[in-house]
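Bench log. Compound arrived from synthesis this morning; before running ITC I wanted a structural hypothesis for how MRU sits in the protein. Inputs:
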Amino acid sequence: MRTIEWDQGTVRMIDQRRLPAELVILELTDYRDVARAIREMAIRGAPAIGAAAAFGLALGARQSQARDREALLAELDEVAETLRQTRPTAVNLFWALDRLLTRAHDPALQTPAEIVAALEAEAQALADEDVEINRRMGAHGAQVISDGDNILTHCNTGSLATVDFGTALGVIRAAWEQGKRVHVWVDETRPRLQGARLTAWELMRDGIPMTLIADNAAGHLMRSGQVDVVLFGADRVAANGDVANKIGSYKLAVLARENGIPCYSVVPTSTIDLSLPDGDAIPIEERDPEEVTVIGGVRIAPQNVPVYNPAFDVTPHRYLTGIITENGIVYPPFKRNLRRVVGG
Ligand code: MRU
């Protein structure tokens, strides 16, 4: 199945907290449970968060008892606010909610039943488009991958981070489908281990050659000539091309530059936020200290140790070779060229 699906008023999603030990499907019929699933990272990855928010709003509309259009629209604002409060960095969350709210306010929709039906259709369209967009990103991005490349990637940007196929991992999949013999170095991605748990699981299922590494091994591999290209995703791209992505991405980009290795961020245009001038304006989520002090239920640090746990960092655009989107690969100057690609 896809990472997230709508089935006649039920949102079905893979519970990513349980992977790779077991494949569990959550079945949610209350938008508050969808909000919790996003906050607790049962579903995660910027495009998947966007799709979950869209289906969550559609669910909220379906749950409503509102008797007229105005009452339903007021309730939808509250549902959207609950969903907005879940995770701050991935702009796809806000983008998806805005898209659905705009649809709900279409004056042609007069009755609550019409709005409910329109929101279900819009959320489904958003999810379907995500898959198609990922395929297009894959086709563009595969051009920068050569036969025999060793690719280093971070976090999980695959089917699980999207509705299906993936962003940076989609590029790897597309290159593999073209017959390029690639090998992927997978960063374990502390503290939540999305690389070890999710990316390794996806690549092994697809039979794409990979090797799991501790995050700290990346510099050694780059300096010793074992990495040809670095690919990661993004949760938000500012107007100047600075990208916020999983904590540790910045370090990889700087190391890549130091070692003369190309480094690309792979993003759908829905992840580009032209309203923010640069990366300093991107909100960076801080998460529970237990993500750092407890691994798989085992405490690895003293009780009450002070912890700082930022979930994302910002890579300044000067470290990026290019930004791969569904509308093509954007090269510097990013400030000018990103505008063009978002325009279509
Ligand atoms: O905290 P997460 O797991 O939601 O973070 C995910 C990432 O950082 C991904 O790299 C990003 O969302 C792009 S994936 C398509």
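What the model suggests: The CA atoms of residues 287 and 309 lie 6 Å apart. Residues 44-47, 90, 155, 157, 161-162, 167, 194, 232-235, 245-246, 311 surround MRU (CB under 6 Å).
ITC booked for Thursday regardless.
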